[in-house]
Amino acid sequence: MRTAERDIVATGLDVESFDEFYRAYSERIYRALALTLGNETLAKEATDEALSRAYARWGEVRALDNPAGWAYRVGLNWATSWWRKVRRERPAPATGNEPVVAGPDPTAVAVRTALDLLPLGQRTVVVCRVLLDLSITDTAAVLKVSEGTVKSRLSRGLDSLRAALTEEE
């Protein structure tokens, strides 16, 4: 047995259970972070970081009510810290925004553009509720806000999305 495998066995981690979790949720966590952050490269790195932290603490994480929500939040926190560090070290580019890469589906592009216009708080709630299919209670726990905040951000966010998508038509 290799040293890493011995360490995993010694700490009581259930590798198969993490493998199942990874297969079931890694893509969903990545897509949620990509929509929230508006940057696919950063979302991939954030997902990798969150899942590596989940693996390292799998004994604790698997006991949570919502391990995928925990991983999403860890990835979001990591990306937020990364952005802060980048802003401190480099001045902002003159254009200020990355170009939007259009996908093959015009509807998906319109939705992505509308999501990018939402404030981060509303966007995270919409992504948690719609893409990750978290309940209001789980979303509140993951984002560490009250259920009322989740409801109001979701309502405002969906209203803004409807308005933006109606104008798009």
Secondary-structure map:
Blueprint: H1 3-11, H2 15-37, H3 40-56, H4 58-61, H5 67-89, H6 106-117, H7 120-131, H8 136-143, H9 147-168
Helix pairs in contact: 2-3, 2-5, 2-7, 3-5, 5-8, 6-9, 7-9, 8-9
Could you say which structural class the secondary elements and strand pairing correspond to? Answer: mainly alpha
As a percent range, the share of helical residues equals: over 70%
**Ends apart, CA distance between termini:** 60 Å
Tell me what portion of residues adopts beta-strand conformation. under 5%
At CATH level 3, the topology of the largest domain is: Rna Polymerase Sigma Factor, Chain: A
What is the ordering of alpha helices and beta strands? HHHHHHHHH
Question: What is the number of domains?
Answer: 2
CATH class value of the largest domain? Mainly Alpha
* Cα gyration radius (Å): 18 Å
Average of per-residue pLDDT values: 81
* CATH architecture assignment of the largest domain: Orthogonal Bundle
Biggest β-sheet description:
none
Name the overall outline: globular
Number of strands: 0
Unreliable residue stretches: 1-13
